[in-house]
Amino acid sequence: MRDKIYLASFLLLAGLLLYLGRDLLAQSAWATWGVTFAGTSGAAVLGLAFYQVQHQLRASRRELALKEAELNFARQVQQALFPQRFPLNSGLEFSAVCVPAAGISGDYFDVLELPNGRLVLAIADISGKGLSAAILMSNVHAGLRILAQAGHEPAEICRQLNRHLSHFTEGHRFATLFYAEWSRPQRSLTYVNAGHTVPILVSGNGASRLECGGVPIGLLPCSTFQAGAVTLQPGDLVALYSDGITEAGVLEAEPFGESQLEALILAHRTRPLDEIQREILKAVRTWSGGEPEDDMTLLLVRATGAGEGTS
Asked: What pLDDT is attached to residue 183?
């Protein structure tokens, strides 16, 4: 920037001198020589400045390409953490999507079938955005899977994961988490909602919320959590989502909101889950009027017959 100011000042001064001394050029050889020298010097300075600008531009392009390559690699690694397929014959069917706001997401969802027949559902939202949130998300992913495979109860899993995050992260970093385990024989969903946006359960009795739990994980090292349980009948639908959906449009006007999401699910509850997902994302994008302001994650779960499920 400083070089550009010097160059502009030099050229302006040279132009001013040429204008003021235009009558001397025809009368003095010294004036002609001086103007020629100034013009040559100006051209040299201009050429040098142009070279510097080109060099800086090439360096910026290389740096941008390197950052883009790193971001693409991080995005690929993150996509590999999400479930690539959903369990069959679990008594549940699924549809899920994660739409990052910044190329890489701080949201997380998981569906994990354990060897003892348990089925784990989880969705989390890491505070912040971008690469730092994605790194913390991968840590939550690994910790949750280790604890789930160790056979701990949902409340204990959240307690241990909270303690780990409290010591591992800075004080202002945390995660909201909804963790649930499905028992096909009892058709029971045992869950803990650790400060996450409240999932919507749509059943024959209408819509209700899965609120039982505690505070977000990572805030207080000694937090405890309470588990809740619901019984799912065939056709019951649970919508798990991040606040990027319900808070869409908040920067422009009013947020999309839970009530509008609930109404949309009730209106389309009998349709295939993929279609419900598309309708929700379409409505959210229409409401917000553009690109997502925050990561948007949606996990739809529907209870099927006792031994049936689709991917």
From this structure: 93
Rounded CA-CA distance 181/148 in Å is 9
Q: CA–CA separation, 55 vs 57, rounded Å?
A: 5
Q: What Å distances lie between residue 106 and 28, 136, 151, CA to CA? A: 73, 8, 26
Asked if 191 and 228 count as a contact pair (C-beta separation under 8 A), the reply is yes
- Angstrom distance (rounded) from CA 236 to CA 77: 33
Judged by phi (left if over 0) then psi (alpha if -120 to 50, else beta), residue 256 lies in alpha
Helix 29-81, helix 130-149: angle, nearest 10: 20
Q: What is the pLDDT of residues 64-101, one digit of tens each?
A: 665 555 555 556 666 667 788 899 889 999 999 988 87
Give the list of residues 6+ apart from residue 6 with CB closer than 8 angstroms, or none: none
CB-based contacts of 222: which residues, under 8 Å, 6+ apart? Answer: 163
**Measuring CA to CA, which residue among 270, 293, 294 is closest to residue 125?**
294
H or E, element range at 246:
helix 243-246
Q: Could you read off the pLDDT of 141-188 as tens digits, one per residue?
A: 889 999 999 989 999 999 999 998 888 776 678 899 999 999 999 999
Collapsing DSSP to helix, strand or coil, 191 comes out as strand
Distances in Å between the Cα of 158 and the Cα atoms of 17, 129, 219, 298 are 77, 22, 12, 21
- Report CA 288 to chain centroid distance, whole Å: 16
The CA distance from 235 to 269, in Å, is 9
Q: Are the C-beta atoms of 230 and 210 separated by less than 8 Å?
A: yes
Least confident of 96-100, 195-199, 270-274, 279-283: 96-100
The phi and psi torsions of 204 (rounded to 5 degrees) equal -65, -20
Residue 26 buriedness (CB in 10 A; 0-12 / 13-18 / 19+): exposed
This prediction has a pTM of: 0.75
